Amino acid sequence: xxxxxxxxxxxxxxxxxxxxxxxxxxxxxxxxxxxxxxxxxxxxxxxxxxxxxxxxxxxxxxxxxxxxxxxxxxxxxxxxxxxxxxxxxxxxxxxxxxxxxxxxxxxxxxxxxxxxxxxxxxxxx
Length: 125
What we know:
single chain, alpha/beta, Creatine Amidinohydrolase, Chain A, domain 1, 6-stranded mixed β-sheet, 28% helix, 22% strand
């Protein structure tokens, strides 16, 4: 069976987002994560976050990676604007408002985030 390729990927799991971007935060007690969402399209990487939580060094790092930083709650409007896309997201780990906000012209590919398996591969010390 041939796997369908996504044209957009919505990430809502905080550990996957910080791992993918190699950033850390302290938004959640005892966890090095930042409250955020991410959306990756064929053209851009969007990080939806409270920009006040980012220091100048992290802002510069994200800019260097060509990450577009958007306000945290803009994820809902951004998702609702997607049309005719194949969207990879894990519906069991995505909030109801995001899933329901996806236009019916899109096709949802409900699979585990690829970063989950990538995180399991450890590099030698």
